[in-house]
User: Fold this.
Amino acid sequence: MGKILVLPPEIARKIAAGEVVEKPLSVVKELVENSLDAKADFIEVEIVEGGKKKIVVKDNGEGILREDLPLIFKRHSTSKIKNVEDLENILTFGFRGEALSSIAEISKITIITATETDDTSSKISFFSGEISEIESEAYRKGTTVIVEDLFYNLPARKNFLRTAQTEALSIRKFLKDFSLANESVSIRLISEGKESFFYESVKSKKERFYQVYGGESYYEHFFEIEGWNGEYGLFGFFVKPGLKEYKKMPQLIFVNNRLVKEKVTIQAIYQAYDTYLQKGVKPGFIVFVDMPPSELEVNIHPTKAEVKFKHSSDMFKFIRNVVRNNLENYYLENEIPSDYDKVSDYSTMIPQNEVKGGSSFVREREDSSTRQKELFHRDYAYTGGSPSFQERGEMLVDFRVIGQFLDSYIIVEKDKKLLIVDQHNADERVRYERLLEKKEESVKSVAPIFPLIFEINIDESFEEKAERLKKHGWEIEIWGEKSIHVKKYPAIMQGGDIRAFIFEYFEKGYEENPEDSVLKLMACKSAIKVNHRLNYEEMVKLVSDLFKTKNPYLCPHSRPIIVEITEDFIKRELKRK
Ligand code: ADP
Ligand code: MG
Assistant:
């Protein structure tokens, strides 16, 4: 006797069914797809024990004709293919007439259904190879499919299932994604007897997006993107440029309204976002790509989750350009959020390749800023900007100074955030950059009216140190054995703490980078101190100057300058969320 055995058909069928139905989620997927195909605009999914014990999918669709019911559990029975040309549909939409028969093979399945013209509903079930008689029930238009004891006859498969909680989670996630694509359908999930969510049918994807994600903390960081050419269309919700890292932002791709895995789209979106997000931050997006089905290669894999574009480089360019253009426009029309405390160089945030032909870019930014300013607290908004800062292509800043706290911190409203600005650190940053740029007041000398004599320890390094200060507008001589005479000092030190500067400079050694240390010390000792009351103009000037620096978030000694408080945070603290 040979070694090869042909499996008995009932076993072969079970194996085949197991390929279509992997877990409770697969059943839910197939059943809600069927409800959609039946033009339902209400779908309710109920699961018990994560779907392992029971899955009920109820819809208000077209229903199934009574005479078709006995056929429904036969393999390859479908009402969706009428002729051979329609076979193309098998490839594109995956109508294979396989779902119900496969589910029936490995569970107890009951269907209750009625079409519009029926007087009663019909009920039929299939269990362990036995098909029941058709019974009549009270009329309800549409179809209810009840699937019980999944894999009761495939114990190995059953053991392979995850916990009820995990299975429920994946179903919940799928149904949310499914809801995003089908906003005109009311969708409810009931899990372990409790309503998990109910999204009523709405008119736009935007409203559905809000239903699904409105409660998430990242919701407000998304904006809408739209674009099309003759053949392709793109619509979606994308994360605004400049967002800080969020751990759990969705990345969903729908092609012709089906959730798919598709690599070209992701790559195109990532490339579009280059320079618009901090390095290493992945963009969140929910994108709907529309295209002629003939442009798609659909994998005949039973779960049909993977697709390929036939003209992938066209698609790549199309998607990248639409996303990139929308990002640019968004960037131009809005102040980019100031979440850049991790970024040391502002220039990386600006789309460098677009700055070429630079002046027009800058002009546009000015225009949009002017408009923004008008919208933004007309009375208080203050727009600063010396020409050199505009040349850099950096933003003109709109903000509102609310006041001063403890005579030390300036409270500012900007980009819908509350900023607490350390006035000393801020002024230090501003002055340090002026010194670096050798602005006039940092090299021009002034002579004190009264002689400035300080007693210090004069050691052998004195000459060298005094010499170094000369470049920066200081003139210092030895005045006696233990004292020096400051004949001139740079204008930037006016009103600053010259005494503190002199003592720190001459008494401390600056081994590393003495040039830079001098500038930092001058910035520090000339800067406004804490516990010092400022008037309104002074505060506005300081904050405005600060935002024109290269890094408003870190002082020259790398201490933070600004604490940001978002509305989100406030709401959380106030338990409004
Ligand atoms: P397919 O969806 O590929 O046609 P299925 O096994 O999923 O195959 O379904 C078989 C047939 O059962 C469908 O073609 C359809 O005629 C009918 N059907 C299944 N579910 C529903 C439903 N919820 N409402 C109306 N008809 C349904
Ligand atoms: Mg189907």
Q: What stands out?
A: Residues 337-395 have pLDDT under 50 and may be disordered. The pocket of adenosine-5'-diphosphate (ligand 1) is lined by residues 30, 34-35, 37-38, 59, 61-64, 72, 77-80, 95-100, 143 (CB under 6 Å).
